[in-house]
Amino acid sequence: MTVTEQQPLGSPFSATSTAQDVLTDIDLSGATALVTGGYSGLGLATTRGLAAAGARVVVPARRPVEARAVLADVDGCAVIPMDLADLGSVRAVAARIGDSLDKLDLVMAVAGVMATPERRVGPGWEGQLAVNHFGHFALICALYPLLAAADGARVVVNSSAGHTLTDIRRHDPHFRTGYDKWLAYGQAKTANALFAVQLDALGRNDGVRAFALHPGKIITGLQREMTRQEQIDRGWIDEHGTVIGADFKTPAQGAATGLWAATSPLLDGRGGLYLEDCEVARVSGPDTPMDDGGVRAYAVDPGSAARLWELSVAATGAAPIL
After folding, report:
1. Annotated catalytic, 185?
2. Which listed residue (39, 185, 274, 298) is catalytic?
3. pTM passes above 0.85
4. pLDDT in tens, 290-315
5. CATH number of 3-316: 3.40.50.12780, 3.60.9.10, 1.10.3720.10, 3.40.50.720?
């Protein structure tokens, strides 16, 4: 993938399209999907959409009791306890899935945290990078043999327009010299985008293609660690909690781009791309406002993606994909 491939394809869908819109006439019978965060917000809309299209859906969940209650009415859905912040938990789940499935057609990496207070995970990793990137990295690498066994698997990773806040901070990725919750979020979202670039480069010969995306602006549980006043000050909600921000999407609209990435025939033979509003995003200039859309060149740079992959393998001990 090169930045020149970041060009719109003429998708029939848009920012206002819903999960139901993009899955019209899509038949996923016989397919198995895994959705992290698949029991709330965008993840729940994703799980419901995939199941309605006929897929069997596996949902790893940090709160499995809550997940089972929420998903009780979804046919063909299995919940497995897992904590993305605990690599032991991640590896155990991957092993369990590997023992029970012979292939995996889709992985939707939807779970995430945003703008959290400073937290240290594992050997002292910055918490947002650990949960949003390292946890998904270790999980997907461990599941890779199941993806390679499928007939054209896709991996879809939720990034964010927040990636425009910063490239990977190679001098201090874990914020040892001072924590900034928004830069930490931005770095993690850049890592999500770069992960898709390198996974696609490594997996395409096995038919495994990967995409990253910005789902849009949506009020979900992702904002749970922000105060109401912070959200009011940003113009997202009013004092009653009502969404007032311009161009905010519903969860069904927010899930649409990921489901389009997972199923669209327009993306056959493609990968390593950053998507938004059910379309391939253009590369944005370094001074382009975040809300104007697009992807920064550094978030789809193959060399940077390869370097991040090496760092992530060393950090997590994940088996390399050859």
Report:
1. yes
2. 185
3. yes
4. 888 999 999 999 999 999 999 999 99
5. 3.40.50.720
